[in-house]
Amino acid sequence: MTTRRSLSLVLALLCGLVAPGLFAFTWQMLEGEALTGMRTVGAGGAVWGLYIVMDGYLLGAGVAVMVAACLARFSRDRDMEAVARIAMPVALACFLGAALSVVADQGRPWLAMRNLALYAQPSSALFTTFVTVGGVCLYGSLVHCVLARRPDLAEYAKRPSPWQGLQRILAAGYCGTPGQRYRRRKASFWMSLFMLLALLAPLVALAAIFTARPGRPPLVLGLEMLSFVILAATSGLGLLLGAAALVGRLGGVNAGLHPRGFARLGRILLLLVSLSVLVVILAEVVALKSLEPATSSYARALRAGVYAWPFWGAVVLMILAAMILWGAAQWQLLRPREVVTASALVLVAIFVQRYVLLVAWQTHGLSLPYRPGHYCPTWIELAVQLGIVALCVLLLLPSVRLIPFAPLTFDDEPAARPPRDARRTLLAGLWMCFASATTLVGFVFSGRAFTEPFLDPVVPASPFLFAIGLALLASAGVVYELVPERRAK
Amino acid sequence: MSGKGKMSPSRRELLADATSLVAGAALAATTRVAQAAPPTKQPHRFGMAIDLGRCLRCQTCVVACAAENNVPPLGVAAAPRMRPIHWMDMLVPANAAVPSPLGPAPAPIPCMHCEQPACVRACPVGATYRADDGVVAQIWDRCIGCRACMVACPYSRRYYNWAAPAWPGGDASSANPDVALRPAGVVEKCTFCQHRIRVTFERARMEEESVTDEALRRLPACAAACPTGAITFGDLADPDSALSGLARDPRAVRLLEHLGTGPKVYYLRGKP
User: Does some domain include residue A449?
Assistant: First the structure.
């Protein structure tokens, strides 16, 4: 009863956040983005604000969480398996939140979805993020999540619940035979590898969007990009630890992460936070020493200008988090409570760092002597963004009911290699060839092969074709795993 | 032939049908591309020179540009919200940390129509492109309002319609019919008065004459309105044009040339 009541309260709170967000977004659509705090660059404002900051934050964290899940799948360790289990839905929610944040930022969101599918060009960094977020991050993560949990789903499908029918469909054909276990491991391994490689593209593209500006010294640019990637990894781990603590609290010890796992990840977090502080300060020092006026103007705004408080505040928070983790590790007290406290500090600090990195460049890093600007989000932006986060959590709840966090099986025994099945290999191979060809055709024609850059691609909707190709590639594991076994003669 | 035979075509007929279908589709695609491609390749490379020694800083060019290109007035209420649209603006040095390459006085600043435009690379949907005549043009209907081009442009010469344009009295009947009105959520910028260039060349083609450098020199609205003739427009591909001569002048500089964007607007510093 208590759990049901608290769940109802959480649902009411989430709906209470989604409704004003929807209202604010509708108003923004009707009146234009004049309702936001964004203003013209060069005339005293910033054209990218909270929406893009949240996009960078969520996408970076989501990629890091998904990478952690893939690495955990490689390790085949019981603690790390729990990490992967928790990570996948969290990553999905992050990707969805990032995609919705970008949509909210567009001047013409409906046209954006259509035009990106029809005309997106690979020369733009936004192409990589849009296409790979849709084709790899969202769809691929979903497929990976379901494939990895099929043994658990098969067990859950035996119990009566409102989700039993869907659980049966998702676990269809899985009986836990040695051959199926072997194939599941193989598919999971290759899927993890594919995801690891495919997730690099949106991360690099996003780092370029946040940091690359014409005329920036290469050293500053390199350090900023490195800082972006390390901060993404740190925020992803922080988010994962927070989610693990929440799952443990709501779903019981079995569903969450073992304290030993918290201690292990806490040490990795300590390393990442220390590295983050080092790289952020190094990038600031190098930017201050830069001879390029725009870069040094930006760096001065961070050191002692209008952005000094948020910038140094975030650095202090990260140092504090590192000290908590280091102290706890020294006295053998690296318990979930300490790790989660440090994670919360890290998450706040990195959000502020993302904000400073994106906004300060637009207001204080211009190459021509325009007057410095400022940016402050309005309640419309805050309501929309809170609504997006609440909506993602709201959508996550049914998925947690469908595939609960608590594991029912753990497959750590070596599975014998089944007899060679040429038909299965051939089908999966043909699928991959078709998917690769679709991806290639989509990419080549998106790049306006055989036509001019400002004309439509010769093959209509090539960017959409590219995204579909990536999604088909991500589905190859499904084909390999789901082809029915041949009956023994 | 039996009825059954008539209903199901032979393999030969099926193959013939399939071949004609594929050929038809290929022909349609080729025709579409051929129709969409620009009719003639123009060897022009349009650019501009602004003589700061002659410029009075009267901002007539700013007003003429706004009137010609249907840029709605900002209004007293909206002005402090820092969302102006000025295709042609005055660069007023207002940040002591970044020295002005044009000196301490304000200078007119249009879009630079770069040879390697950063905005074109940044646009995810190809809504902005570099035309054959060197003009960096915009397809407003295709723009999705992501503002990536505004962030990418090192000159900050692009403007976003944060809201639907508001016209005095609520109607745009006095707008120039040659230039499309832009809706909310679209980025816009200087086009070197591309519509005037097109009309000039079309008229010359119909009259079977060539467009002279003299006809081009004051073609854009800003150049036509300048009381001292400080703004010169022309073809940089023509070595004998007045613009090419000004570009070779020792006083000529280009903004942020070191970035490699190849701006096609030249500034002449100091007295002539």
Answer: yes
Q: Identify which of B120, B105, B10 has the alpha carbon closest to the alpha carbon of residue B51.
A: B105
Q: Looking at the structure, tell me whether residues A305 and A393 fall in a common domain.
A: no
A348 residue type, one letter? V
Whether A127 maps to a domain, the answer reads yes
ipTM above 0.85, yes or no: yes
Which residues of chain A have a CB within 8 Å of the CB of B90? none
Strand B265-268 to B128-130 pairing: unpaired
Looking at the fold, whether A144 and A184 belong to one and the same domain comes out as yes
Q: Which of A47, A118, A214 sits opposite B118 (nearest CB)?
A: A214
Question: Nearest-5° angle of CA B32, CA B37, CA B39?
Answer: 120
Domain boundaries, chain B: 3-36, 46-268
Give chain A positions within 8 Å (CB) of B72. Answer: none
CA distance A175 to chain B (A): 46
Residue type, B169: G
CA distance A94 to chain B (A): 21
A365 and A218, same structural domain? yes
Domain co-membership, A383 together with A372: no
Question: Cα distance from A37 to chain B (closest Cα, Å)?
Answer: 9
pTM across the whole model: 0.88
Same domain, A335 and A236: yes
A213 vs B contacts (CB less than 8 Å): 151-152, 154
Examine residue A489 and state whether it is found in any structural domain, yes or no: no
* Shared domain check, A383 and A371: no
Determine whether the interchain pair A121/B84 forms a contact, defined as Cβ–Cβ distance below 8 Å. Answer: no
CB burial of residue A162 (10 Å; 0-12, 13-18, 19+)? exposed
Exposure on the CB side of residue A147, measured as CA atoms within 13 A: 29
Encode burial over A245-268: b for 16+ CB neighbours within 10 A, e otherwise: bebbeebeeebbbbbebbbbbbbe
Q: Using CB atoms, which residue from A43, A107, A458 is nearest to B144?
A: A107
DSSP SS3 for A37? coil
Dihedral sign (CA A162, A166, A171, A172): positive
Q: Is residue A450 part of a domain?
A: yes
Please give the residue range of the domain that contains residue A448.
429-476
Nearest chain A Cα distance for residue B4, angstroms? 37
User: Looking at CA atoms only, how far is residue A214 from chain B in angstroms?
Assistant: 6
Same domain, A298 and A405: no
> Topology of B46-268 in CATH?
Alpha-Beta Plaits (3.30.70)
DSSP A138: I
pLDDT tens-place values along chain A, 489 residues long: 466 777 788 889 999 999 999 999 999 999 889 899 999 988 888 999 999 999 999 999 999 998 988 888 777 777 777 888 888 888 989 989 998 999 999 999 999 999 988 998 888 888 877 777 766 778 888 888 888 888 888 888 888 888 889 889 888 888 888 888 888 888 888 888 888 888 888 888 888 888 887 778 899 999 999 999 999 999 999 999 998 888 887 766 666 778 888 888 899 999 999 999 999 999 999 999 998 899 999 999 999 999 999 999 999 999 999 999 999 998 877 888 899 999 999 999 999 999 998 999 999 999 999 988 899 999 999 999 999 999 998 888 877 778 777 776 766 666 677 777 888 889 999 999 999 999 999 999 998 888 877 778 999 899 999 989 988 998 888 888 888 776 655
Chain B residues touching A205 at Cβ < 8 A: none
Q: Which of B94, B126, B259 sits opposite A121 (nearest CB)?
A: B126
Tell me how many domains chain A contains: 3
A120 and A224 in a single domain? The answer is no
Of residues B97, B125, B184, nearest to A300 (C-beta): B97
Query: Which of A124, A370, A453 lies closest to B148 in CB terms?
Result: A124
User: Looking at beta carbons, which residues of chain A come within 8 Å of B151?
Assistant: 41, 47-48, 213, 362
